[in-house]
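QA checklist item 7 of 12: single-chain prediction sanity check.
[x] sequence parsed
[x] length recorded as 48
[x] structure emitted
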Amino acid sequence: MTDEKVAIVTGSSSGIERADAVNLAKVGVKIVTAARRANEVEETTHLI
């Protein structure tokens, strides 16, 4: 068993969801991003 945390953040291309993804990553949570706007969700991935 492992203590690793994973979060699936939908709508993570902008707004609160983007901020949530970035902040969760800062505290060590592994993030799976999902959004309709591929180019913007890619930007979120780079922020992480």
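[x] summary fact logged: The chain is about 45% helix and 20% strand.
[ ] second reviewer sign-off
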